[in-house]
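Page header: ASSEMBLY MODEL / two components / 1022 residues total.
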Amino acid sequence: MRLLSEVRERVRALLFRWREERELDEELSFHVEMATEENLRRGMSREEARRQALIAFGGLDRIKEEVRDARGTRPLEDLARDLRFAVRRLAREPGFTIPTMATIALGIGVCTAVFVLVNAVLLRPLPYPAADRLVDIGHAAPRAELMVTGLSAGTFLHYRENSRAFEAMGTYLEDFRALTDLEAPEQVRIALVSPGLFTVLHATPYLGRFPVAADAEASGRGGVLISYDLWVGRYGADPAMVGRTIEIDRRPEVVVGVAQPVFHFPHHETQLWIGWPPEKLFARFGGPRADVRGLFLSGVGRLRGGVSRAEAERDLDRLVRTLPDVYPDVTAEQLEKMGLHAAVTPLKETVVGNVRAALLLLLGTAGFLLLVTWANATNLYLVRAERQRRAVVVERSLGATSGRLARRFTCESLLLVAIGGALGLALAHVAVELRFGFEPEQIPRLREVTLDRAGLGLAAGLCLLTGVFLAAVSLQSALRPGHAALLAGGIGRMTAGRKEGTTRRILVVTQVALACTLLIGSALMARSYWRLKQVDLGFEPERALTFLLSVPSDPYSDYPAAARLHDELLGRLRDLPGVEAAEAATLSTFPLTPVPDYYNDRVAALDRAFTDSAAAPDAVIGLATPGYFRAMGIPMRQGRGFQAIDAGGDAPGVILSAALARSLFGAEDPTGRRVRLTSTGDLAYTVIGMVGDVPSRAIDEGPARAVYFPNLYPARVDTATSAVPAYTPRDEQYIVRTSLPPTSLVAAIRHTIHEVDPKLVMIRVTTLEELVADSMARPRLTMLLLFAGAATALLLGVIGIYGVLSYAVRRRSSELGVRIALGASPARMARMVVRQSALLALGGIAVGLIAAFALTRFLRALLYEVSPSDPVAFLAVAVLIFAVALAASYLPARRAGRIDPVRALKAE
Amino acid sequence: MSDRSGELLQGTLELLVLRALSLEPMHGWGLAQRIEGMSRDVFQVSQGSLYPALQRMKRKGWVRSEWRVTENNRRARYYRLTSAGERQLEREKEKWARASQAVNRVLGWEAGGP
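Prediction written out in full:
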C-alpha cells in the first residue's frame, strides 16, 4: 500500500512534471495572496502586506526546491538531464560515436545470437519433464567392428524386464514410409516405437492417445500417432482425426492420436509413429534371440531418481552377462570375443549428434569477437579521452567535481552501450530469424531456437558489463591527477603519457592476436573444405538426375513382384527422349545418401576363419543393375560387370567395392575369391569384379565398404537357397543420365512412373551435383561463419593499428618536424612509422600463433585431412596479417614523411 | 522548516498537520493558520515549510489532495487524511505521549532527586 502510493506519486511527478509545477505555483501563490489579504485586513499597505506575507512564508524559491526534492524524483530528473547532455555530446562526435556503437552492437549481437543457438541446441534440456534422467541405451563392442551398436529386440526385452536402474524403457526404429491416401502421395519420416516409449518421455498427446500394446494385439497393426504438422498440413486439422483411417504404403491404418506441436522425437522431421512391439521381430526369426550382431534398434530409458549413468551401465552389464542364460543364439565366449557391454549416454547427446563441435566452434568464435570488440571500444575510448583531456581539465579548474564528471562519463557509456546493445539485439534477432543460414536438416533442434529470456538476459548482462567497463576506462583516463600542470603546458604536450601509449599498443597487439587466431581457425576450415572439394568422388555428378523410389510391400510383396516393377519402370524411362541411361541401385550402396543401418552385414572371405572379427568387416549390402556402374561413372577396377548368370547357381556372383576388397584381400586380386555374409550363413558368393570406391553417407566419412548383388530384372533367383530375396528391391535409388538439363526431365519421369502405378512416390528428386553440394553444405557454412567472424576481427584489428599509428604521428609531429629540419629524410620518417606498424603486427602475430597452436586442436573433429597445426594455414595467415598491417601504416607514414618542419615548429 | 527549530520538529510538524487534517480537509493556508492557532505560536516554523512536508506525506500515502473551490470562490488545493494517515496519527500520538512521559520522568527525577 505504502509502496504503491510511493510509486504512484513518483511516476505522476515524473510524467506530469509540467503540471505538477504549475499546480505548485498556483498553490503557493494562493497561500501568499491569502496571507497578503490577511495583512491588508490588519491595516498594512498593499506593498508591506505582500512583503510581510513573503517573509512569513520563508523564501518562495527555496520552498519550491524543497517540494521538488520531496517528490523524490530528483535523481531521475538529474539522470534525464545528464542523458540529454550525453546525447548532445555524442551527436557532436560522430567519428567516435558511430564506430564505438557499431563495435558494441557487433560484439553483443553476435555473442547473443550464437549463445541463443548453442543454448537451444546444446545446453537447454530436451523438452520433456525431468529430461536429465533420459538416456540413450545401447551397447559398445570394441572388438567386433559393428557399425551400429544399439539394441536388439532380445536384449531390449531382457533389460526392460530385469533392470533395476530404470523407471521405464522404450525402443524405436527410424524408417521412411509413403502416405498414399488423398491425391498426393507423400514420403514421411517415421519411427516404429515400442508402446512404452511415450511413457519413458512423459509426453502427452495433443489429441487422442498414444499407441498402446493393445492396438497391436487387436489388429495386428500398431496404431498410429501423427505429428501436429502432419495433422494441420496434410489433414487440414480434421477435428475427427482420432479414429480416422489413413493409408500408409497402401495399407489402411487407424490414427489413435495427434502429437503435441513441439513433439519431435527422435528426429526433428519425424512425422508419424507406429506402435510396434519389438517381440514381433522374434516371429520373423522363429523364436526369441539375443541377436547381438544385429543391434539395430535404438533404446531410450528413464533412470530412476538418484541413479547415475555409471550405475545404470553396471546394472545393464550384469544383464549382458546373463544373456546366454535366456537366449539360445549367444554364448559367453561370443560376448567375450566381441567385448560387448552396455553404453548409457545422455539422450541429448544422441539427439544433438555431431553438430556439437561446430556449435562450440561458433561459440568460441563469438567469444573471441567479443574480446576484439571490447579491445576496439577501449581503444576508441582512450583516443577520445586524450582528445578531451584539455576540456576536462578546464572543467575541473572551473569547479566540476570528480563525482559530477564521473556521472557524466557513466551516462555517456551507458547511453552508448544501451543503443549499441539495442542494435546488437536487432542484429541477433535477424540472425536468429534467418537461422544463421542453416537448413533445418543440418542442425537438430533448430526449430527450438528463439531469442528467448536467456538470450535477452545474456545481452543485458553483456551490456551492463560493457557499460561498466567502458565507464571505468573513461573515468580512469579522465580523472588522473596532475592536470593542473598539463593545463599550464602547451597543447602539444597535453597528450598521452608513455603509459597510456603503452596501454593502447597492448590493446592493438591483443586485437591482432585475436584476429590472427580466428583467421588461422577459418584458414584451417577453408583448407579442410578445399580438401573435401578435391576428394575423388568416384562417380561423375554431371547431368544426372536421381530420386528414390520406395516400393511398398503391398501389392509388391515379394522379390519377383518388386523386380518386375523396377524392370518395367527402367525400360520405360530409357525410352524417354534425352535419356542416355536409367539404372538403379539399392539406397544403401548409393553414394551420399542416408543409409538405414539394417542394410549392414558382415562379410568374410571363405578361406579365412569366420569367427575372427577383424577378418569379417562390416559392409553395406545392396543391389545394382548391370548398367548401374557405367551410368554412374564408377570405374570397373577388376573383373567384369554383372551378367545373367550371376543371379543364381551355387555361388551367385557379387561385386565388391575397392575398400571392402582391400580389407578382405589386401592388394590381391579379389576376382574368383569367395565370400559369405553373416546373415546368410553358409551360402557362398563368388566375387566377379571390383569397382571403384564412392563415399558413403557423407564425403568426409570416407569410402563405403560395399557388396553389390546383381539386380537382374526379371529376377533369376534360386528360391531354394533364399539368398537374394533377403534384399528385395524396396528402396531403389534411380539414376537417370541425360544429355539435357537434368531437372527438365522431372515432369516426364513422374508421368511415366504414374502411368505404371499412380500411387508410387518419387522421393528426394535431385541432381547428383546437388547431392554433392548438400553433402558439403554444413562444412561450407561453418567455414563461412567462422571466416566472417575472423574477417571482422581482422578489420577491427587493422583499424586499431591505423588509429594508433596516425595518432602517434599527430602527437609527434613537432618532434618529427624538428628531425626533418635537422636533416633527416622524409623517407626515413615514413620508414619509422612503418617499422612501428610492423612491430605491432609482429607482436600480435606471435601471440596469435601461439594461441592458435594451443587452440586449434579442438578443431580436429571438424577438419578433413588437415592437421590442426597445418603449416600452410599458419604461414598464410601470418603473412596476410603482416601485409595488412603494413598497408594500414601507409597513410600515417605518408603523413609523417610530409610534415612541414616550419609549421610543426611553429605549432610548438 | 526554520533552521532554529531543528530536526526534532519535522516529525512534530507532521504530527500537527495530521492532527489538523483529522478535523477536516483544508488547504495549505488554512493549515498554516490552524497550526499557528493550535500551537499558540510556540513553533517558529516558516509557513512555507508546510508544503515540502505535505508533499512528503502525500508520497507516504497519509494524505490526498484535490482542487476545490473555497467559500470565497477561489481555487485551492485541499488536503485530506487517508485511512493510512489516520493510523499514522494514532501511532504518532502514542509515540509522542511515550516520549513526553519519558522526558517528564527524567525532568521530574532531576528536579526532585536526592
